[in-house]
Amino acid sequence: MKYHLSVKSSNPKTGKIPVSTTAKDSCPPACPFMNNGCYADNYPLRGHWDKVSDGSRGDDWPTFIAKVAALPDGIWRHNQAGDLPGIGNQIDPVMLAELVDANNGRMGFTYTHKPMWDRQNQDAVADANARGFRVNLSANTLAHADELVALAIGPVCVVLDAKEGERHDTVTPAGNRVVTCPATYRDDVTCSSCKLCARQRDVIVGFPVHGAGKVKAGKVAAGQAEDDAHMDAAHDVARAMMRQVGG
Predict the structure, then answer these.
(1) Helix axes 61-69, 93-103, angle to 10 degrees
(2) pLDDT band, very low/low/confident/very high, at 181 (cuts 50, 70, 90)
(3) What is the number of domains present in the chain?
């Protein structure tokens, strides 16, 4: 599996900060957005992601880690596409710990759709957040966001079935506050200037659906994709993993 690090991103949403990309094999089958509205399937990011995934671009893990350790102090984003180290649904705790060590002294942050029914995944994420590498748990719906908040292992973000370019602050069914990512509705805000996702916080960050797959993604976020074959497959994975941990 390959990993790519851009020292200065050209993504207008992130700003000119270091940004990484991980091959598609890192993405969990349990994610209902896989091939079903994932923002990273949009061009031009899709073209770059394809090359990292087929091995024609990027580095092996030790080389990538060395590059992260050599970054200047400051904010950087791990994975504009792809997920935490580990194949499929499972996080590799050793590799994640190596990434956390390399991040030491920096303001690294990322997001994960790896399922949190697995205690090993929970422990790996909790350890990363405790040691200063911010792993945001990605929720599919507002109700799912409540479940992730209840784990108390890291900050939470959620996909919103809402129009990009507007502010959609809301609350979850359990009363948790959701604030819209400022970079999605303000042209003068980037990850570089905002830093909200790189901080430990109580509020959930909401991302309105966007890109060519926003209709599909919106159905997932609204909890209306239960009959889709892809969602059925994701639920099968969920049930199997819950049985493994006694859920």
Answers:
(1) 30
(2) very high
(3) 1
Q: How confident is the model at residue 18 (pLDDT cuts 50, 70, 90)?
A: very high
- pTM for the whole thing? 0.87
Distance CA 154, CA 127 (A): 9
Q: Which pair of tokens denotes residue 139?
A: 């929720």
Look at the alpha carbons of 37, 31, 157, 129 in this order and tell me if their dihedral is positive or negative.
negative
Helix axes 119-130, 93-103, angle to 10 degrees: 10
Whether residue 229 is predicted with pLDDT greater than 70 in this model: the reply is no
* Pair of tokens at residue 44: 């031009």
**CA separation for the pair 180, 107 (Å, rounded):** 21
Q: What is the DSSP string of 154-190?
A: S-EEEEESS-TTS---EE-TT--EEEE-GGGT-TT--
On the 0-12 / 13-18 / 19+ scale of CB atoms within 10 A, 182 is: middle
Which is nearest to 165 in space by CA: 190, 182, 188? 182
What three-state secondary structure class fits 247?
Answer: coil
117-121: long-range contacts at Cβ-Cβ below 8 A with a sequence spacing of 24 or more?
A: 117/238, 117/241, 117/242, 117/245, 117/247, 118/89, 118/90, 118/241, 118/244, 118/245, 119/245, 120/90, 120/91, 120/93, 121/89, 121/90, 121/91
Helices and strands per DSSP (H, E), number in the chain: 8, 9
Report the pLDDT value the prediction gives residue 17, as an integer from 0 to 100. 97
Domain interval for residue 30: 3-244
pLDDT confidence of residue 39: 74
